[in-house]
Amino acid sequence: MSSEHGSEKNVSDDDKSLPETQDTAAGGELEKHPFADPGLPHHEPRIQDIDERAAKRSERVVALFFTISMLATVAFIVSFVVFPIDKIFYLWPLGHISALNFSLGLSLGVALFAIGVGAVHWSRTLMDGTELVQERHPIDSTPDEKAAALATFAKGAEDSGLGRRKLIRNTMFGALALVPLSGVVLLRDLGPLPEDKLRHTMWRRGLKLINMNTNEPLRPEDITVGSLSFAKPEGLEEGSHDFHREIAKAALMLVRLEPGDIKDKQELDWSHEGIVAYSKICTHVGCPVSLYEQQTHHVLCPCHQSTFDLSDGARVIFGPAGHPLPQLAITVNDEGELVARGDFAEPVGPSFWERG
């Protein structure tokens, strides 16, 4: 009895230990392995694989899309030149839109779309369509694996027919070469070149110094020792469209010092009876310098505390500013009014890389 029960128990344990894969029933296999790997389907050749005429047709289709991309890129460049920025037209159902923006967006979209369609059609109809299975491998490839990768790349290049199908190759290179020109052309929209505008202001020889508060010409007697005055060039009106652009470079501050307190010889030569004129624009980040210490002859920028000594060529004595405030040489005209003897000798405001 005991041995028979023992045998039954052993058999029962063995049955439990049998792997489920031993079940060979058709339905049972799927029930026990619902995520079983079905494997790759049988490879079916495409018509282009067996008919060279079909392959030629696909080649022409790919070349057509690449050619469309080239034409669209040319249209993008032409649109950028032809359409003015203020040209507006009505397009249903979008309404009134900019002709320039619409033409640029449409042409560039077609150029990129055509390259994508051509590349997809090329890969689906002409490149090798055989399904491949690549087993996972360690990150550090062995020399044999590297050689195999190079061989696979070489085979892929051969299967693509890039060297054999010159029409596709040439049109693809043409499309890819022209599309970046769209970005180059867009650089023109950044605005006109600055040329040397950053180096010059409105100040010219003989221009009167106009009081910013009264809009009247400044005279030497209007500026007392220890006072701080602000001036603008004659002819610059606050209502003009370029006022803010020009005053940002030409704003001037005037301080009257005792001539004996001026340490810098050039500063003394460019002054008039101890009146010195300096740019109001800080050489750090362009803030307006407006705080004056009468006893020390220092002016302070309120933004980052750059401090300049007006008795010593406006040199920097504290703060992040990189160089002194530019000085404007002044004199008086026949009417006794303060006038400029020319423009600033150096660019005003923050440093820029062309400064010299």
Automatic annotation (TrEMBL):
The keyword Lipoprotein does not apply. Residues 1-44 are annotated as: Disordered. The chain crosses the membrane at residues 61-85, 97-120, 167-187. Residues 249-339 form the Rieske domain. It is a multi-pass membrane protein. Keywords: 2Fe-2S, Cell membrane, Disulfide bond, Electron transport, Iron, Iron-sulfur, Membrane, Metal-binding, Oxidoreductase, Respiratory chain, Transmembrane, Transmembrane helix, Transport. It is found in: Cell membrane. Pfam families: QcrA_N, Rieske. Its cofactor is [2Fe-2S] cluster. Residues 1-18, 29-44 have a biased composition (Basic and acidic residues). InterPro entries: QcrA_N (IPR045603), Rieske_2Fe-2S (IPR017941), Rieske_2Fe-2S_sf (IPR036922), Rieske_Fe-S_prot (IPR014349), Rieske_Fe-S_prot_C (IPR005805). Belongs to the Rieske iron-sulfur protein family. Iron-sulfur subunit of the cytochrome bc1 complex, an essential component of the respiratory electron transport chain required for ATP synthesis. The bc1 complex catalyzes the oxidation of menaquinol and the reduction of cytochrome c in the respiratory chain. The bc1 complex operates through a Q-cycle mechanism that couples electron transfer to generation of the proton gradient that drives ATP synthesis. PANTHER family: CYTOCHROME B-C1 COMPLEX SUBUNIT RIESKE, MITOCHONDRIAL. This is Cytochrome bc1 complex Rieske iron-sulfur subunit.
